[in-house]
Amino acid sequence: MKTLKELTRPNIWELKPYSSARDEYKGAVASVFLDANENPYSLPHNRYPDPLQRDLKTELSKIKKVSPEHIFLGNGSDEAIDLVYRAFCEPEKDNVVAIDPTYGMYQVCADVNNVEYRKVLLNDKFQFSAEDLLAATDEHTKLIFLCSPNNPTGNDLNGSEIEKVLSKFEGLVILDEAYNDFSATPSFLRNLEQYPNLVILQTFSKAWGSAAIRLGMAFASEGIIGILNKIKYPYNVNQLTQQQAMELLRKYYEVERWVTSLKEEREVLTHAFKKLSCTEKIFPSDANFFLARVTDAVKIYNYLVGLGIIVRNRNSIALCGNCLRVTVGTRRENEILIEALQKYKG
Ligand SMILES: *Cc1c(COP(=O)(O)O)cnc(C)c1O
Q1: pTM for the whole thing?
Q2: Which of 206, 204, 199 is nearest to 228 (CA)?
Q3: How many domains does the chain have?
Q4: Which of 86, 87, 131, 309 is placed for a possible disulfide with 304 were both Cys, Cβ 3.0 to 4.6 Å?
Q5: How confident is the model over 109-160, as pLDDT tens digits?
Q6: Residues enclosing ligand 1, CB less than 6 A?
Q7: What is the CATH number for 131?
């Protein structure tokens, strides 16, 4: 790997971050806070939140078994995706490489930041080869995006190919594990020490059931986390979100129960889906959704919309012709979907 200084945009490397009132005084002993121009009357939401979310990171580090210095928290993982572009990619000069198809935000953030986005098509099993991916890189490639389990295909990427990319690529590998809770494959978190160029993204939005609070996690070396913290908005994770996340972590056993149920429901739903006359193929899933090739994705999508049932039409995505992406819902929701499709006349 190149040094962090070589990978970081020079203006970001030199940047002196904004120092907030809460950065400058961090102690707990004071009782009179007249430093941040807050309103003293409107308790409990009148104070600025902790810019580095220390209490939350302490609790998270127990669950993830990663120390707080290796954790960045943002306004969804989407914030972390945007920040890695802004930290490491010089507009119009640097580029990034990603598998295709994958999560759309990698390309949107590339376009917003005016950074070239290079796509490498997956094979018909929705797998990639490290060699092909690396062949698409050059000396200006700063980031490689991998997503495992991948969205929208639903499958885990081959772990040994991921490791090959990690050991051979000179830049940073952003490994998005938004759906890892639903997979039988362990997270790459345990490899964080081994690969200084690894950035793992996880989120509160999927298995953790908290899409509304907008909270995403990035795990990486202290150096990388330091750069993300330096360029983020000072109070990027609001107080309500921090409190709600603490609440969730206190009942983490609920998350484990949800994941167990959703994995069971995924099996029931895919089994029923396979028997439908409109189904051509169900792709294997390691996530809380699956991709299904159907006889006519556009017609079936519109038919379901007419009944108030919304799935995701992925027909126009690479390798996903005539495919629908279906999220696993409650038993009842899944039954409603299956009953509707049983009545569908192509
Ligand atoms: C849903 C999803 C996310 C989550 O984004 P948040 O901003 O944390 O809600 C990240 N990556 C992938 C691949 C996703 O599908």
Answers
A1: 0.97
A2: 199
A3: 2
A4: 309
A5: 999 999 999 999 999 999 999 999 999 999 999 999 999 999 999 999 999 9
A6: 76-78, 103, 147, 151, 176, 178, 203, 205-206, 211, 216
A7: 3.40.640.10
